[in-house]
Sequence to fold (119 residues):
Amino acid sequence: MKYMLMIHQGTTPTPLDPEAWATLSKDEQQAIYAAYKAVNETPGVTPGNGLQPPETATTVRVQDGKTIATDGPFVETKEALNGYLIYEADDLDAAIELAARIPAARLGGAIEVRPIMEW
Fold:
């Protein structure tokens, strides 16, 4: 089964926020890079792309036949989706094990694991 692992950065320092990233030691920064590299090289993983910050989002709804586009997401910035990957795993336990290896999970964020519908 394929799973989408959605990375919610939370308060996780990233290189995109130089001030927060600088709070980590060089060893911690290198460990995070190495962990993401290892996750992306795991058999069955299709790396996704990172996403631009939540404030760049546009949310689209159709109401009474009219398209309504609203700036930004409808979540707190700290909860916003930051990136994703696809993982073809034997079962949910394997996907959870991989999610736990993603640095954001232990550095203030969360990883949502969701099965992908296959037609």
Remarks:
- The chain has a mean pLDDT of 89.
